[in-house]
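Give me a protein, keeping tokens residue-aligned:
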Amino acid sequence: MPPLRTAPQDAVALAEVILDDLGPTPHGGHRRLTEEAEHLLRTYHWPGNARQHRRTIEVAAARAGSSPIAPHHFPVEVR
């Protein structure tokens, strides 16, 4: 897999796989990204690797709880 900084279009697809791995929200719903969050993932210059991306998605999902994941749920360095 190429680094995300060279294939930014893969950031959203990878995030969706990670969200599926995390399972349902605390209220049993499907975790999802807002359009704004998808845009942020596609335009962020990922300096790290897939582990950094996974950790970023995990943090955002935890902060979002049962809400759709929005840009403000991501760590500050990604926003």
The helical segments are 10-22, 35-43, 50-64. The chain is about 45% helix and 0% strand. The radius of gyration is 12 Å.
